[in-house]
């Protein structure tokens, strides 16, 4: 994300708002910051509170919550100050700190979404083979790589670029990334790497997940049909059971019709509900990311070719709308998980976790 084009407005941003509008603006952004921070902290509390949530798969959700907690607690409030004052009153050190951590955590949040989609796809598509290689240690390495990659992509260049270019083009009262205003190529490249490419990859992964689940659902329905329970023996037929924790598949080997009938009858009690939950969650996840990051990245691609097409209010909206994703993520990934929801009910309403 970049604040660069906002800085092109010669007027102070706060001169565009009345006192009442500024009051609503500060209240709204503070509320968003508070909800995003609390919602992501609740993910950690739920993880500690419910032992059944302490799985390696949920480490990705926790790591994602770290990035989103920082964005909610720190990044949004820094930008609120910048927006209300109409300039940057905190100096260059604070500016570099905000930009570096903001872009680092925002990029980490996006990469986490991508990694989670790949992880879910592999767990569903090749459960036995993938589980044999996905150890706790390997998953820790993956999480470390996500944070390291996100760091390398932004932080060193944000700090060092003015020295590499041999000039400081950012005014003292402004705070934005210099290389995003110096190079059209870098602006387009960052938009593609931070939004368009990850989005396409997530869409591809979730379409594969959806089609695979639908295929397995049709197989189960055919296996349950009466004509399959004649005097024929059906070797190596698999019934699909979607677990509530990891949205993964467990495959049972069936060796005769009696065993097949008993297994599929058990599966049929939960599979439709879990299929519907999985499909709705996948659509929600991909839609939340696509919608919240869409305005800014469209503006980022248009502005290098038409500097007057994207006004300061549009940049304000696009930049802040990206932050909304950090508020939505815990609801998509954690609140949409049955065990997380049960734990949250226990936390807020005093309900038994095991109920």
TrEMBL record:
Matches recorded under InterPro entries: GPCR_Rhodpsn, GPCR_Rhodpsn_7TM
Major localization listed first in the record, in broad terms: membrane
Domain (G-protein coupled receptors family 1 profile) spans 39-333
- State if Nucleus is listed as a keyword: no
Is Metal-binding tagged as a keyword? Answer: no
- Can you tell which superkingdom this protein's organism belongs to? Eukaryota
Keyword list (alphabetical) reads: Cell membrane, G-protein coupled receptor, Membrane, Receptor, Transducer, Transmembrane, Transmembrane helix
TM regions (residue ranges): 22-47, 59-85, 139-164, 184-207, 281-305, 317-336
Q: Where in the cell is it found?
A: Cell membrane
By its UniProt entry, which SUPFAM superfamilies does this protein fall under? Family A G protein-coupled receptor-like
Bilayer topology annotation? Multi-pass membrane protein
Family per similarity comment: Belongs to the G-protein coupled receptor 1 family.
The protein's name is: Muscarinic acetylcholine receptor M3 isoform X2
What is the organism of origin for this protein?
Hydra vulgaris (Hydra)
């Amino acid at each position: 994300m970049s604040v660069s084009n906002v800085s092109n407005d010669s007027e102070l941003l706060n001169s565009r708002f009345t006192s009442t509008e500024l009051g609503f603006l500060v209240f709204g952004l503070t509320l968003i910051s508070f909800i995003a921070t609390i919602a992501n902290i609740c993910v950690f509390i739920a993880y500690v509170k419910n032992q059944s949530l302490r799985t390696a798969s949920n480490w990705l959700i926790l790591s994602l919550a770290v990035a989103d907690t920082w964005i909610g607690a720190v990044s949004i409030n820094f930008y609120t100050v910048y927006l209300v004052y109409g300039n940057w009153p905190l100096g260059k050190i604070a500016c570099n700190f905000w930009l570096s951590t903001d872009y680092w955590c925002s990029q980490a949040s996006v990469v986490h979404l991508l990694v989670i989609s790949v992880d879910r796809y592999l767990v569903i598509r090749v459960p036995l083979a993938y589980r044999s290689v996905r150890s706790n240690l390997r998953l820790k390495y993956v999480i470390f790589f996500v944070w390291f990659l996100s760091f390398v992509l932004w932080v060193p260049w944000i700090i060092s670029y003015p020295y590499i270019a041999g000039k400081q083009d950012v005014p003292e009262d402004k705070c934005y990334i210099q290389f995003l205003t110096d190079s059209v190529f870098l602006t387009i490249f960052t938009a593609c790497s931070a939004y368009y490419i990850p989005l396409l990859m997530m869409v591809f992964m979730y379409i594969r997940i959806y089609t695979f689940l639908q295929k397995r659902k049709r197989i189960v329905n055919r296996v349950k049909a009466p004509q399959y329970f004649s005097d024929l023996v059906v070797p190596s037929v698999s019934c699909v059971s979607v677990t509530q924790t990891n949205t993964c598949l467990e495959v049972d080997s069936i060796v005769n019709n009696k065993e097949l009938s008993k297994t599929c009858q058990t599966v049929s009690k939960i599979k439709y509900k879990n299929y519907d939950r999985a499909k709705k969650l996948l659509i929600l996840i991909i839609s939340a990311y696509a919608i919240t990051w869409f305005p800014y990245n469209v503006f980022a691609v248009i502005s290098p070719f038409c500097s007057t097409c994207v006004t300061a209010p549009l940049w304000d909206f696009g930049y802040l709308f990206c932050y909304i994703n950090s508020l939505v993520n815990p609801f998509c990934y954690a609140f949409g998980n049955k065990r997380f929801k049960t734990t949250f009910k226990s936390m807020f309403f005093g309900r038994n976790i095991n109920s």
